[in-house]
Amino acid sequence: MKATDLREILHYIPQFRDKVFVISVDGEIVEDDNFPNLVLDIAVMRSLNVKVIVVHGAGFQIRKLAEQTGQKISNDDGTGVTDAATLKLALTAANRLTHEIIEGFTANGLRAAYANCIKASPMGIIHGRDYLFTGKVERIDTELLNALLDKDITPVLPPLGFDSDGKTYRINSDAVAVEVAEALRAVKLLFLTTVDGITMNGKFVRQILVHDLEDALKQHRSWFPADQQSKPSHAVKACQSGVNRVHIINGRVDEGLLTEVFSNEGIGTLVYANEYRQIRPAMKKDISNILKLIKPSVQQDELMRRTRADVEGHLKDYYVYEMDRNLVGCVAMHPFSEEKKIELACLFVHANHENLGIGRKLIQFVDDTAREKGFEIIFALSTQAFTYFTQKAGYKEGASSDLPATRREKYEQSGRKSKILVKSLAAAAPAAPGEANSLAKVTS
User: Fold this and answer.
1) Domains of the chain from N-terminus onward
2) At how many degrees (to 10) do helices 142-150 and 173-183 cross?
3) Are the CB atoms for 423 and 395 separated by under 8 Å?
4) Sign of CA dihedral 440, 441, 442, 444
5) Is the CB of residue 360 less than 8 Å from the CB of residue 390?
6) How far is CA 427 from CA 261, 404, 443, in A?
7) Digit-coded pLDDT (tens) for 52-68
8) I need a labelling partner for 297 at 20 to 30 A (CA). Which of 35, 58, 166, 412 fits?
9) Is 278 exposed, middle or buried (0-12, 13-18, 19+ CB in 10 A)?
10) What is this structure's pTM?
């Protein structure tokens, strides 16, 4: 492990200490060669005082068992009709899998226990169809789960529930995970499956606001592969029920779970319930990170070189964009109050966070802030991406005479020959959605 990896993990520890994570593992992942590594990842989380609950599916094992015994099943994932024969197979498969998971935990020095904490009722008759032994979650026994967690015991929950008479019902594991996450007020719900995350209309999605995902599921359900619709649908339900962040990742990736939890980029898809990213004024402690952030662009002559003294001397002009308390973007606004002009400068977004709309938000933030402060003209200097400003952001190419006198002198002395771009704030046009990557490194 690199020292930088350890520093990144340490950055997250205060946020996650004593918080609850619900990890939902597809049955196929439990049988994968990488599962022992996942158990080790969970061991790391537990050592950092993260409270973990494991929910597992069993559809893969039910199908295998049906093939081995020559039996026909009515449904394998707990969403359709569960007849008596299928319930019997589900009990065998789920209980065996629970035992295997607990064995894996024990082998790594972790205490784990099966908890019959899911109180269920029958799904009943829907549109004239009796779902027989398929159930739905009525209540989660949070007292039992918290008691186990307080004793450093990881609860392992199969996709089964019990009613008040002790009858057993097959329940979809994704639905169980959502109910448990809501009941325990989990800060994260992680789905470990066999795909890398959410694919929409053939494109992999790294991060998406829950409202956007919900709209896509309602209006363009065909964008989602038919066999991959459960996780996005349940991610929406989880976010709407109070879980701020839901992660969908490939459980076959070595160290994937830790990478998803303890790095800013992750490996899968993040569905988030709130706009957790924010723009704020830069502080003195940010200066080193700002210089580190823009260094690649300075080296490529896209941004003008700045020293620590340069940034510190104009620190009140700088704003940073945070994601999970990590600085991933910045922008500066240099005012020229007498002329009622303001310069948009040092606009940069980290390459790993392009195409997320961050650049667009930073540019719009500058427009709105400048307008509120009574500035009439905004200008920017760009050497390599000036076409974005003229084609997408409402700027027009100007001349040196458009610059304030003091800025014009500095411009002429620099020798960079940047394009001068000017916009009237009265006619400001917001950046078009989806154009954020063009704004990653464009202004001097």
Assistant:
1) 3-272 (3.40.1160.10), 278-439 (3.40.630.30)
2) 80
3) yes
4) positive
5) no
6) 43, 20, 21
7) 999 999 999 999 999 99
8) 412
9) exposed
10) 0.68
